Amino acid sequence: MQLGVFPLPVFLLPGGVTKLRIFEPRYLRLVKEAAGDTGFALTLYQPQLPFQTYPIGAWVKFSDFTQLDDGLLGVTVVAQQLVSLSKLNMEEDELRIAQARPISHWPELAVQPEHAERTAHVLRDVFAEYGELAELYPQPRFGDAAWVCGRLLELLPIPLQEKVKFYQPESFPAAWQLLQSVITDDQ
């Protein structure tokens, strides 16, 4: 499938939600063309790469549109799945377009129940402290270890260059281990 590409310093895994402010004409066009079921690829901005675009991104679809107080367009997007991007090109208005191929992410996971609950509790605490974040997830899936892990990785203050390794399907054990070490260090 062909998708518009929006490179930003935002890391999303499947199920992740983020809000964007749209003001550049090329991205207003992207929103118009991606409305409905099409969506677009939200990928990491990487200035050293061709088209400043990381080759893997999140295929996102819109969940909300709003006019912001400053008159700009606000959109909320939800990551459906990860996509591999190829055949990138830049159109006349500098909107990036790419061929996107869906890639699998973390398969069904076996996680120790006590570890899963402790990790979910951390995310519940974060949501309790930051209501605006919790509002993005009206139906949180605290019983799904991959979903909880994804949300915590999105929030962790580690460099994006470190986060990109968690796009890989086999990366769940390393992601889980990282989160467990952070959670254990905090207690």
TrEMBL record:
Organism phylogeny: Bacteria, Pseudomonadati, Pseudomonadota, Gammaproteobacteria, Oceanospirillales
InterPro entries (alphabetical): Lon_prtase_N (IPR003111), Lon_prtase_N_sf (IPR046336), PUA-like_sf (IPR015947)
Name of the protein: Lon N-terminal domain-containing protein
One Pfam family cited in the UniProt record for this chain: LON_substr_bdg
Highest taxon, organism lineage: Bacteria
Organism field: Reinekea marinisedimentorum
Transmembrane residue ranges: none
Domain annotation Lon N-terminal: ranges: 4-137
